Amino acid sequence: MSVASPINLILLSLFAVLLYFHFRPRQPVSLPSGPPPAVFRIYTPTKLLEFNGQGDRSVYLAVRGRVFDVTPGKNFYGPGGPYENFAGRDASRGLANQSFDEDMLTKDLSGPLDDLKDLDQDQLENLQSWEERFSEKYLVVGKLVAEGDPEAPAS
C-alpha cells in the first residue's frame, strides 16, 4: 500500500481545503455607524419647529419642557406619520388628551408655554405614561423654554 493512494490524496486535498477556509483572509468586520452625537440644547418653540423631519432633518418633540429626539420613530412622528402634527412642537396637551389633532397645538409660538394647569387627573396620568414611554425609548436632547426666557439662546 502506497502513501500516494487515491484515498490518501483525496483526504490530503480535503485537509488542505479545510485549512484554507479556516485561515483565509477575511474582510474586516465593520460596525454600522451610529447616529450623530446629540448635544443637549435649549430650544424655543420657533427653534424647535425646525426639527419637524422635513428633508433629512431630525424629528424632535417636547413633552413637559423636555425635548426628545424621536428620529428613530420618524415613520410615526415624521412627515406622513400618524403623529406628524407633533413633529417640532410641544406635544404635551395632545398626548394628555389622547388627541393628535392640530387644534391641540399652541398656535402662538412666541407666547408663553402651555402650563397645562387645566388638565384633570386622567389627562395628567395619560401625559405621564407618554413621558415615561418617551424616556425609555428616545434620547432627551434639550429643554423647551418660551421665547424671551432668560435661558433662551440669543438669535
SSE order and pairing:
Elements: H1 6-23, E1 41-43, H2 45-48, E2 60-63, E3 66-69, H3 74-77, H4 92-96, H5 121-137, E4 139-144
Parallel strand pairs: 1-4
Antiparallel strand pairs: 2-3, 3-4
Domain Cytochrome b5 heme-binding: 43-145
Organism: Penicillium capsulatum
Subcellular location: Endoplasmic reticulum
Describe the 3D structure.
It is found in: Endoplasmic reticulum. InterPro entries: Cyt_B5-like_heme/steroid-bd (IPR001199), Cyt_B5-like_heme/steroid_sf (IPR036400), MAPR/NEUFC/NENF-like (IPR050577). One of its GO terms (cellular component) is membrane. With 155 residues, the protein is of the alpha+beta class. It is 31% helix and 11% strand. It has five helices and four strands. It has helices at residues 6-23, 45-48, 74-77, 92-96, 121-137; strands spanning 41-43, 60-63, 66-69, 139-144. The model has no long low-confidence stretch (mean pLDDT 89).
What shape does the CA trace take? elongated
Pattern of helices and strands: HEHEEHHHE
Report on the biggest sheet. 4 strands, mixed
Tally of separate helices = 5
Low-confidence stretches: none
Give the averaged pLDDT, no decimals.
89
What is the strand content?
Answer: 5-15%
SS-based class: alpha+beta
Q: Strand order, biggest sheet?
A: 1-4-3-2
Give a short overview.
About 30% of the residues lie in helices and about 10% in strands. The chain has five helices and four strands, in the order αβαββαααβ.
